[in-house]
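Lab meeting, item 3. Inverse folding demo.
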């Protein structure tokens, strides 16, 4: 249970004052003058300022030692009022650097030795030993507390920075998902809408097919956006990720058909034995193929493209190549677009490699290789 500093310090003042008063009543038995009203007033003046030790530690320490010196000079038992100065040395050492706290500890030692000098029959060897030992131990505890607090603050800053980085990475992943979903589906819808408008009166069958493609593509886009919103809502509320299926390699055929309907001659070829992969790996491969075909649809609408999916014992490879026919020169990416950056980030997230660039014989190629080991897949899934 957290207690406000002023309330805690006030409780400490009450405890210190009570102990000082009870100890002062033993002064006569210890061979010292009994506390009179002036002595009790000095006891109060030494202990009451401690209530403000957190707000002005250095000023309170100087005031406490000043009144304690007056108390000692008046001939009262020095031990009665020694607890507040000890606490203030600890407080300054725990809140201020050594260049400030060490002189404060030395001040306490000086007052302690002064008390021994003005007291009759004091064993100075013992007094000097106490004057060195007590402030040194108290200062050490305060210094350790200060370093511990600094380490805690540093750890808190590092945790906050790590949280900010995680938020930024999460936003980046969300942005890539939105880019992949919106860019691909809207490109298909745009091409089909243009086709339907062009042949609306001359070829109603083709226009009807284009409108059907628009309907199916928009429905699929809405479903993927809903899935993303469910995932985000589940994370925000602390629930588990919903069981809505994510796009995977099994749906490459649907994507190819959709792009083919947009006017790009796309062929899909699969090598090796298809097998179930980690959901994150399949989503990564699906999104890379989706982005590559979207770029063909936008920048080379007259080109022919080929999607090759190859299953290997420990890897899966997908490649998308086009022949460069019908390319729009001004629309060819330079390798620094958001979509290409998203491809590289996805490959990096799942421990894979990707090559993106033009072919010598013309055209453009994207080749992604992803490891399919259980460890890599689980890491990628957790990150997703």
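The presenter then showed the designed sequence:
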């Amino acid at each position: 249970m957290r207690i406000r500093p002023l309330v805690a310090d006030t409780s400490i003042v009450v405890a210190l004052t009570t102990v000082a008063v009870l100890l002062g009543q033993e002064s006569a038995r210890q061979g010292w003058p009994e506390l009179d009203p002036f002595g009790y007033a000095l006891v109060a003046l030494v202990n009451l300022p401690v209530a403000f030790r957190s707000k002005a530690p250095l000023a309170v320490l100087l005031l406490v030692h000043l009144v304690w010196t007056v108390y000692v000079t008046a001939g009262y038992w020095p031990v009665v009022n020694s607890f507040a100065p000890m606490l203030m040395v600890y407080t300054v050492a725990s809140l201020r650097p050594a260049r400030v706290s060490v002189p404060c500890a030395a001040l306490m030692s000086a007052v302690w030795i002064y008390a021994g000098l003005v007291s009759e029959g004091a064993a100075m060897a013992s007094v000097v030993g106490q004057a060195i030992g007590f402030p040194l131990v108290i200062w050490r505890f305060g210094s350790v507390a200060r370093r511990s607090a600094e380490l805690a603050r540093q750890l808190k800053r590092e945790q906050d920075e790590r949280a900010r980085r995680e938020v930024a990475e999460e936003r980046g992943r969300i942005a890539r998902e939105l880019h992949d979903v919106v860019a691909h589906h809207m490109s298909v819808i745009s091409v089909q809408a243009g086709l339907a408008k062009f042949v609306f009166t001359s070829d109603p069958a083709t226009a009807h097919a284009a409108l059907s493609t628009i309907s199916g593509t928009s429905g699929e886009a809405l479903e993927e956006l809903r899935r993303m919103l469910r995932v985000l809502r589940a994370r925000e509320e602390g629930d588990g990720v919903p069981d809505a299926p994510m796009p995977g390699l099994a749906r490459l055929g649907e994507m190819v058909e959709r792009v083919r309907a947009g006017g790009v001659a796309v062929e899909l070829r699969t090598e090796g034995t298809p097998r179930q992969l980690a959901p994150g790996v399949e989503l990564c491969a699906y999104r890379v193929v989706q982005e590559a075909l979207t770029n063909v649809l936008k920048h080379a609408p007259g080109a022919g493209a080929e999607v090759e999916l190859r299953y290997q014992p420990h890897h899966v490879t997908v490649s998308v190549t086009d022949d460069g026919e019908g390319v729009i020169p001004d629309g060819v990416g330079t390798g620094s677009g958001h979509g290409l950056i998203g491809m590289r980030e996805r490959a990096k997230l799942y421990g894979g490699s990707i090559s993106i660039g033009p072919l010598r014989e013309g055209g453009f190629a994207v080749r992604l290789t992803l490891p399919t080991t259980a460890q890599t897949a689980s890491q990628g899934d957790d990150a997703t």
